Amino acid sequence: MTSTDDVTESKILLAEYDRLKEEQKTRIGFRDNLLYFTLAAATAVVAITTQSGQPRLLLSVPAICLILGWTYLVNDEKISSIGCYVRERLGPRLGELASAQGAVFGWEVYHRNVAGRTVRKRLQTAVDLFTYLVLPMVCTTAFWCSPVVPPLFVLASLGQTLALAVLGWHFLRRTER
User: Fold this and answer.
1) 63 vs 20, 30, 93, 109, 142, CA distance in Å?
2) What is the DSSP string of 88-144?
3) Using 50, 70 and 90 to split pLDDT, how confident is the model at 175?
């Protein structure tokens, strides 16, 4: 026995909140695993390069870091956007409907004001920059310092370096949030 009277705006907003938090949780897990996968992939490439004696293989590390770093950033942006939407739109609307005295989803605001958050965000940015920018640049530099550096690979590495600079800029830009 379901009628349209059972569907209220509050119920719809709570259902939306549940789905958004589930998406956010899934994205957080995926994003965090990208970091581990990137480090494992880079380590594997360095090991294969060392065993094979083919320094040009090192140029796959910047490609890996660019692809996975961009994916990391996109997921991080969606995670932050969900939190912002809940804080600024969904929570206030539900609070209005419920005639709530305070913030409806208090955790969404509270955890952003905890002591040390700014330091933790900056440290996380440093880890992200090391993983997605410094590590591939070390591999690129090692390639440049190798005995045989084919011109076509140098051009590719310069393009990768430019792309890594853009990626690094996006990581730094996101730190402010």
Assistant:
1) 32, 19, 44, 37, 15
2) IIIHHHHHHHHT-SS-SSHHHHHGGGSTTHHHHHHHHHHHHHIIIIIHHHHHHHHHH
3) confident
